[in-house]
Design brief:
This protein is mainly α. Helix content is about 65%, strand content about 0%. The protein contains ten helices and no strands. It is globular. The two termini are about 30 Å apart. The model has no long low-confidence stretch (mean pLDDT about 85).
């Protein structure tokens, strides 16, 4: 999941290079032993370069969460436009991944610095308005939303105006995350999918369920300390 939503294109390029090596180039070598090593090594390198240059995120603006926000060569980038035609497990998976890519865009677009309190408050309001837009708000997005607000607060803290000295950065962050934990409540770990979704359904229930089941425990644990 992280490899498909992480904003560093090199991560996705390396991932696809390894996938091409394991599932394409190496099987060809096993089937046809005389295959030249240049082909075995060239295929994954070429695949990695192409995917890395294509990017992990689309070029669309981040103001609409329903746009396609993942890169054109990712699973989400390819199938998100046709999600309504797919099974329930694929729809959930695609919507979640697109939401993660969308939030990643918000992260990389945080202003380098805030020059005034008014600018910080305005930016925070704009960000909150955007995060409230999705009709279905998946709990699995909360760690990335946490990263988003951590980035915003850090850029604000660097300005170091007197008001910030009277606010504990950690307390401000926890208050934000408690707020978003009440907003982002959609879960998939307890969903019942059809038999045709057995493999994909169980996969996403396990993958996203780790965050869904442990996120609140993490916040509570930090709060107790």
């Amino acid at each position: 999941m992280l490899a498909f939503t992480f904003p560093d294109d090199r991560v996705l390029g390396v991932l696809f290079g390894l996938i091409s090596l394991v599932f394409i180039a190496w099987p060809v070598r096993l089937i046809r032993a005389q295959t030249h090593w240049g082909f075995i090594l060239g295929i994954p390198i070429l695949a990695g370069v192409i995917v890395g240059l294509a990017g992990t995120l689309s070029k669309m603006a981040s103001d609409n969460p329903l746009h396609g926000h993942c890169g054109p060569l990712t699973y989400t980038g390819v199938f998100y436009p046709t999600r309504e035609l797919l099974s329930a497990a694929h729809q959930d998976d695609l919507e979640i991944r697109n939401q993660l890519c969308w939030t990643r865009k918000l992260v990389i677009r945080v202003l380098p610095k805030f020059d005034s309190e008014a600018e910080y408050l305005t930016y925070t309001k704009i960000t909150r308005d955007k995060l409230l837009k999705p009709e279905r708000k998946y709990r699995v997005a909360l760690p990335i939303i946490g990263y988003l607000y951590g980035t915003i607060i850090n850029r604000w803290d660097n300005y170091n105006i007197p008001l910030m000295k009277n606010i504990q950065t950690g307390k401000l962050f926890l208050e934000e995350m408690k707020y978003w934990s009440h907003e982002y409540t959609e879960e998939v770990s307890a969903r019942e999918y059809g038999w045709w979704d057995f493999l994909h359904g169980n996969y996403i229930k396990f993958e996203y369920g780790i965050v869904e089941k442990n996120w609140q425990n993490l916040l509570d644990g930090i709060n107790e300390k």
